[in-house]
Design brief:
By secondary structure, this protein is of the alpha+beta class. It has a single domain, classed as Hotdog Thioesterase (Thiol Ester Dehydrase, Chain A), CATH 3.10.129. The chain has a 5-stranded antiparallel β-sheet with strand order 2-4-5-6-3. It has a two-stranded parallel sheet with strand order 1-7.
C-alpha cells in the first residue's frame, strides 16, 4: 500500500493472463454464462471470432491494482468509471497501469483522482478510465514527490 502520494505518481502495474479457464471461473462466480464468453463453437461464429473475457473480469484486475495501492480505502470507498475499447481474449496478457492525476481536499478528507489503462500484449487499449479514492489518514501527501 502507498504510504506517500503525489500528483503524477505511477501506481504499481499489474499483469494478468487471460485464459479460457479464468473466463469460465469468472462465469461461474458471476453467474454470467453468455455464450460469447463460454461457448467456443458459438463464439467462433460471431464477429469476435472466438470467446472474449467478461468486461467485469478485466475491471476486477483494475480493482486489484487499486487495492494494492490504496488498501481498504479502495475497497470501502473507491469509485470507478471505465470505457471499454476492445475485447480481451484468451491468450491475451493484459497490463493495467495507473497514475495519480490530482489530489484534492474535501470536507477534511483527501482524495486521489487517478487514471488507468488496460492494454494487451500488442499495446491495444482494452479499457481506460478514471478512479477516485479517499486517502487513508496516515497517507503522506507530498508535492510531486518532494
Amino acid at each position: 500500500m502507498l504510504s506517500e502520494v503525489h500528483q503524477g505518481k505511477l501506481l504499481q502495474p499489474l499483469v494478468r493472463d487471460i485464459t479460457q479457464d479464468r473466463i469460465n471461473l469468472y462465469a461461474r462466480a458471476s453467474g454470467d454464462f453468455n455464450p460469447i464468453h463460454v461457448d467456443e463453437t458459438f463464439a467462433a461464429n460471431t464477429p469476435f471470432g472466438g470467446t472474449i473475457a467478461h468486461g467485469m473480469l478485466v475491471l476486477a484486475y483494475v480493482s486489484e491494482m487499486m487495492t494494492l495501492a490504496f488498501g481498504q480505502s479502495w475497497i470501502s470507498e473507491g469509485k470507478l468509471q471505465a470505457r471499454f475499447k476492445e475485447a480481451a481474449r484468451p491468450g491475451d496478457t493484459v497490463t493495467i497501469k495507473g497514475r495519480i492525476d490530482s489530489i484534492k481536499e474535501d470536507n477534511g478528507n483527501w482524495y486521489a483522482d487517478c487514471t488507468f489503462e488496460c492494454s494487451n500484449q500488442r499495446g491495444a487499449v482494452i479499457v481506460a478510465g478514471q478512479a477516485t479514492v479517499r486517502l487513508p489518514t496516515e497517507t503522506r501527501i507530498t508535492k510531486n514527490g518532494s
